[in-house]
Design goal:
It is found in: Cell membrane. By secondary structure, the protein is mainly α. Helix content is 66%, strand content 2%. It has a two-stranded antiparallel sheet with strand order 1-2. A two-stranded antiparallel sheet has the order 3-4.
């Protein structure tokens, strides 16, 4: 035995730990030289990737880009202040809001790209041993630097998003310069240092690909917006929201769909099995619609979820697969001595033992890669299904179909918990994708290991059939269960149910009661199997749908205790109550009918408050009496039917909370109030 070989008598306790590491084969940083008992000289030092310092120093770059971003932010603040003064608006500059998350008509590419860049930087912040580039020795206070980095990177990339807020040529020029700088330096650094010692030599390069793609999009989009602004063909300006034809097209689409449904409802035929299969497949494929635009938050959440899926998959592959390959290549004849110390004899020939161990380790590697791939595909399918369900839920709430979305009565209005959930919805979605994919990979990996090593390999080699031998030894039990189930189904079909005149009823009730009594003990055993099957199905369903927040993993009666679904339900409340397409279409038509010619900020404020429209009468415009009367009636109709104003009226303050549905008085309550008013008038007339 060589100097580096394993000695069972001298190192019994160490070998137990090492054998467990070799058998489980799920190391994070596995030392293959020790695990398999081989000499360290088999792996020369050339495989070690030394730290790489790019020509564009990261520390100097961040100091310069932070100063440049601060200057850009000051310039944008001055421009925003001047624009507000020119529009005769009061208050702080609008630069504090980098993007209007409740505007469905704006260009979503800039916000989506910046959020993608920010997510990649935050991901590197957690993985990298040096969270911030300002310090090199940060091992002692790494947690503090991580906390600082959580706030540093959003502030660093804030000007990159704010440059497109003002819809100004100066902003587009500054955005182009910033995006080119970020993109150029990042590509320069990756070309200088394509290999790094972090996790895997190419992990840092592949991890930065989404960030490079987002910065490349920004580097192309800002010059394109500048070019459109110079030519005067830019459509994405501040007045696009209420004046956009999207809301009017949506209303027209709603009316046209109502007519189509009336015609199609006459031919209500049950679809056949092939058609149902096609419909089930289509339910997982998102197809864009012209008359519907996704909210900005949902668009950002979709891209962020996809980037999270990519980053987690890359991390799971880079952290485990190279270690498995290194351990498999390091197996030699000493593994036979190690296994013999634990009384495990795979074969008397050591070369055969090496071949068997290498084959088993290769099977483990295949199982792990298959589990990770299956988890990624499942999450991708769930993400596409969520996009389809998001659109269905939003359209359902737009038309007031609350019970089909929430399964209970809910008030669609802004509230404190709803606003908090709306703010963190995108972040919560990414976090659930991260946790869900890790759990799915672990569960799928264990299931594949059981299937491969207990079913597939024993069947192929016709040996070590432990599972089949155990099941075969219990054949009387399985035969009893099978016969009991068959007897109950056959007797229920032919003996205990009779069909007369197209109806079904029970028959032979005495024999039915006797068979029920006799099969009680057997049904207890069947119930145990059903309970185990129920547990497996429930666990698999919850694990598969862990990354989705648009469905509850709990029962309908307790779905409020599901924090993810509760966040999603509150998010929908804010989106529907603040960005309803019909409401915005009505506000746009109302402003247009009364001759509103103000700027975008004034229009938005008038559309939200509504009461300022009364002051339009004071303006000296030549408006006909018919238009003036129509505007007054539209204003009156809006104020009377405004759900947020119902509770402030004297008559409705006497109603109970159950009388209101989504801020509006129920129809039955209205009828009762009318009857009460009529009875009071009759009593007053009789008294007189």
């Amino acid at each position: 035995m060589t100097k580096h070989s394993c000695s069972f008598r001298a190192q019994k306790r160490e070998h137990r730990h090492l054998l467990f590491s070799c058998v489980t084969l799920i190391p994070i940083r596995l030392n293959a030289n020790l695990c398999c008992g081989i000499s360290a000289t088999k792996f020369p030092a050339t495989n070690v990737i030394p730290p790489c310092d790019p020509t564009a120093d990261d520390r100097l770059y961040h100091i310069c880009i932070t100063a440049i971003s601060l200057v850009v932010m000051l310039i944008l603040a001055i421009l925003a202040r001047r624009m507000k003064v020119g529009d005769r608006q009061k208050g702080l500059p609008g630069l504090l809001s980098p993007v209007n998350f409740l505007d469905h008509t704006q260009h979503k590419g800039l916000a989506v790209a910046v959020f993608g860049v920010l997510l990649c930087k935050l991901w590197g912040l957690i993985i990298s041993p040096h969270p911030l580039p300002f310090t090199t020795d940060s091992q002692n206070k790494r947690e503090n630097w991580v906390i600082l980095g959580v706030f540093y990177y959003p502030a660093l990339y804030y000007p990159l998003l704010a440059c497109g807020t003002l819809h100004n040529k100066v902003g587009y020029v500054l955005g182009s310069l910033l995006s080119w700088t970020h993109f150029g330096v990042l590509v320069w650094q990756k070309i200088d240092c394509p290999k790094t010692p972090l996790i895997h030599k190419h992990y840092s390069l592949f991890s930065s690909l989404p960030q490079i793609a987002c910065l490349a999009f920004l580097s192309f989009q800002y010059p394109l917006l500048l070019f459109k602004g110079l030519k005067g063909t830019e459509k994405n300006n501040a007045t696009e929201d209420l004046s956009s034809s999207y809301y009017r097209d949506y209303v027209k689409k709603v009316f046209s769909k109502k007519k189509a449904t009336k015609i199609s409802s006459s031919s209500a035929d049950k679809p056949k099995l092939p058609q149902r299969i096609i419909d089930a497949v289509k339910s997982y494929i998102y197809t864009p619609e012209d008359a519907f635009r996704f909210p900005l938050k949902l668009a950002i959440s979709g891209v962020v979820s996809f980037i999270t899926l990519y980053q987690v998959g890359l991390l799971l592959i880079s952290a485990v697969v190279p270690s498995l390959q290194t351990a498999r290549m390091g197996v030699d004849e000493d593994i036979a001595n190690l296994l013999a110390g634990f009384k495990i004899m795979l074969s008397p020939d050591k070369h055969e033992v090496v071949r068997i161990v290498v084959y088993y380790m290769w099977c483990v590697e295949v199982c792990y890669i298959s589990a990770m791939t299956l988890s990624a595909l499942v999450n991708l399918a769930m993400l596409m299904r969520s996009m389809v369900l998001h659109r269905s839920n939003l359209k359902g709430l737009y038309r007031g179909d609350i019970y089909n979305v929430y399964n209970c009565q809910r008030s669609i209005r802004a509230s404190r918990p709803a606003l908090v959930c709306w703010m963190g919805y995108t972040s919560f979605t990414a976090a659930h994708i991260f946790i869900g994919m890790i759990i799915q990979t672990m569960v799928f990996f264990l299931c594949l290991l059981v299937a491969v090593f207990l079913i597939i390999i024993p069947v192929l080699h016709r040996q070590n059939l432990f599972l089949f031998q155990m099941l075969w030894s219990m054949w009387p039990f399985w035969l009893m269960i099978l016969l009991a189930v068959l007897i109950q189904h056959i007797t229920a079909r032919f003996c205990f149910i009779k069909k007369t005149a197209g109806t079904r009823d029970l028959d032979n009730r005495g024999n039915l009661f006797l068979l029920t009594y006799l099969l009680f003990p057997v049904n207890v055993l069947i119930g145990v199997l059903l309970a185990v099957w129920r547990l497996v199905i429930t666990a698999l369903f919850n694990i598969v749908h862990m990354g989705r927040v648009d469905i509850s993993l709990l029962n309908r009666n307790v779905e409020a205790f599901d924090p993810a679904y509760r966040c999603y339900a509150h998010y929908l409340k804010i989106e529907v109550s603040q960005s309803h397409p019909v409401m915005k279409a009505f506000c746009g038509m109302l402003l247009q009918s009364v001759g509103q010619d103000g700027k975008a900020g004034q229009r938005s404020r008038d559309a939200e408050e509504g009461i300022q429209l009364v002051q339009q009468e004071k303006k000296q415009h030549k408006v006909s009496s018919a238009k003036r009367a129509r505007g007054h009636w539209q204003l009156l109709y809006t104020l009377v039917n405004n759900p947020s104003l119902v509770g402030t009226r004297k008559h409705f303050q006497r109603q109970t909370a159950d009388s209101f549905l989504n801020g509006s008085l129920n129809r039955s309550t209205k009828d009762e109030s009318k009857k009460e008013a009529g009875s009071k008038e009759a009593e007053a007339a009789a008294g007189n």
